[in-house]
Each structure stands twice: as C-alpha cells, then as structure tokens.
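During the no-cost extension, the postdoctoral fellow (Dr. R.K.) reprocessed legacy sequence entries with the updated structure-token encoder. One reprocessed record is reproduced below for audit purposes.
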Amino acid sequence: FIPEDYIQCLAEFRPQFLFVVPSLLLFLATHPKVTPDLLSSVDSVLVGAAPASLQLQEKFKNKVGRDIDIAQGYGMTESSPVTLCTPHRYDLSKVGTCGQLYPNTEAKIVSLSDGSNLGPHQSGELYLRGPQIMKGYLNNETATRETLVEDGYLRTGDVAYYDKEGFFFIVDRTKELIKVKGNQVSPTELENIILELPEVSDVAVAGVPDETAGELPRAFVVVKPGSQLDEREVQDYVKERVVKYKQLAGGVVFIKEIPRNAAGKVVRQQLHMLAAQFED
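Re-encoded structure tokens follow.
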C-alpha cells in the first residue's frame, strides 16, 4: 500500500464506492492529505476483513463532513466468499455488525468450552453452512476434516455472536484471543478503545507470556506526527473502560508502524517477535 498512489487515484477517478479494510478507513479518516474534497464523490463504503468500530466510522464521517453509508460484510475464501452483509439501511444500534445471513445460508454459534450451540448474545465460534461453502482443500484431507465438520458446517475460526434480530457481530479470531488467568480477552476490543485517543494513528494488541497469568495484553501504538502520548496515559484510558483482567498489564510499546498483511490484517506473529525483542 502506497499512500500517495491511493490519494492520486481518489483525485483522478473520483470514486462513488470504496471497498476498504479498517486500517485503510483509518488512513482516510486521519491522513492530513486526504481532504473532504478528495472524498466528495464517495457516497458509500463497504468494510471487510475486520470489524470497523463506531468510533472509526465516526472519524471517517467527520472527515467527509456529511452522512455516508458505511456497510460491513463477512466472508472467507472458503465461503466463496460472502456469507453475511448489512442491509442498505439499518438501525444505528447495530453499528459494528457484519450483517445478516445471505439467502440460503445458515449459521450457528458453538461454545469454545463445551461445543454446545449457543443462543443470542453469547460469544462462541461461528460455524456456517450453505451452497457457497467449499467442498474442501485440494490435496489436503487433514485440513478439510478440521475445517468442514458435521452436517457440512464450515468452522470459521472467528469468535462471534448474534442478536435477536439475526445481526451477527465478530469479536475476534479464536487463535488471537489472549488468555489471562483463564479469561479470554479480545485484542480487537482493546484496539478499538485505544483508537478513541486522538493522538493515536494505529494500534495493535497482542498477548505476552506471564508466569502467573499465562498471558497479559500489551499494546503496540503508533502516535500521530506531532502528537505526544506516554504509556501511563494509554493504560489509564483503558483501565477506566474495562474489567481488571483486560487491562494493559503487559505494557505499552510505541512503534513506527503496525505490521499488516496485504488484506490489512494485523500480523500478530510479528508483534510477538517485537514483544520478545523488548523482553530481551
């Protein structure tokens, strides 16, 4: 991703629709060279790859200077890819949802502890079934058996929940949850809180090993140019908004850039490597 090229494309092609990941939406909302005029042609945005928080959406709308449709969807390569998407118009109380099920698509939420099916507003692993689900991985029966389970359901590896109206909300990846004294902590939840700080340009949270707790949340923060922020300010801000085991007991590290892949997702393995360097 080259910021100058993207900005040039906005100026040259004047798009009406943008398909973005949250990190790109954050770039558009905070980069000083992205002006309201550059975004004046845009009337709708679709966010994928990860949830876009209400705070992030508001930042973008404030930059644009007007109301704009921001939709979110959910899919995987294994699901061809779309399985969930928000309606064209939906209630503001649903902000943060990745939408409702596509036609002919089924879902269930499965408990991470005992494998039972869960009801509304209970978080567990999202399973999906429908005509768009893959038949399997080519020449990899082991991976196929691990991913496609009973009755043709696809294990997504994502923690989610749904409400009584059938809107789904993604919490985090099962493999990325931080285990603190047996409690599961979502890095995304903490990242969204830290992004509320006006001095923060980007952030990622990962677990670091701890003999007593197992893991502790640590924040890796990118500060906007010309802004100042210290570790205690970040920790105190989070402390006021979460229960004790979710607090940033693993500390705060300030870095120049968050490692992300081509889809804009945080490469947490590199964060773990960074954490190990700071421990040394």
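Residues 24 and 230 are 25 Å apart (CA to CA). The first helix runs from residue 3 to 13. The remaining legacy entries will be reprocessed before the final report is submitted.
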